[in-house]
Amino acid sequence: MQEYMNTKGRIFDIQKFSVHDGPGVRTIVFLKGCVLRCRWCCNPESQNYKIEQMETAGKLKTVGRDVTVKEVMDEVAKDRVYYEISGGGLTLSGGECLCQPEFSAALLRAAHYYGFSTAIESTACAPLETIRLLLPHLDCYLMDIKHINGAKHREFTGKDNALILENAKALAKEARHLIIRVPVIPTFNDTEEEIGAIAKFVSDIMPGGEINLLPYHRLGLDKYKGLGREYTLTDITPPEDEKMQRLLKVAESYGLKAKIGG
What we know:
The protein is built from nine helices and eleven strands.
């Protein structure tokens, strides 16, 4: 057995048959830990690396478990036939997989060993040297860019975006396939000017590149209650379809391959 199959990491879920997180039918492995604290995060149980207790349907649920790469791949490989038919494979999400770079790189390497395509959903909020550990084994980088304004990014996520934007410039050159994803959040970045600023940035570093606009939703609201945490965006609602279409046209006006959804 390959030695990297024994690499250990911490996950909190494995989700099968996804069609929105990379090409084809995919299995998503959700890793624990994140450096951001986005107010709208739909997986608040992913933010802390520690193993937690979360109340779900009136019962306490343990969130987080330590596993080896082999244990994960044994589960992922069960759906090999679907990957072969659709061109799908493994996607790492979270949380932020860059918080566990050795484990993430080993998972991606193992997926390639099995013949599966690989993708990550990531903010790229880590040193570029850390990201480069994953790139040799990565087919598709689904990268969040949430805002161009650093102060507003810090207000809503807890961190400035300078490192993220600098990494995006490097990844536009180094990643095999880079797709920019923008969560569209009312009161944060849902104006035509704000989406236009992101689209211009993407066009400048990756002319004709891909950008996905992801409408805000409230699917994670109950998780905050289960963790005993406050959800601070209770007063906002998902953007209407008409508004998303207008924002889509703004992104397209910069020559990007734009779509709504992942």
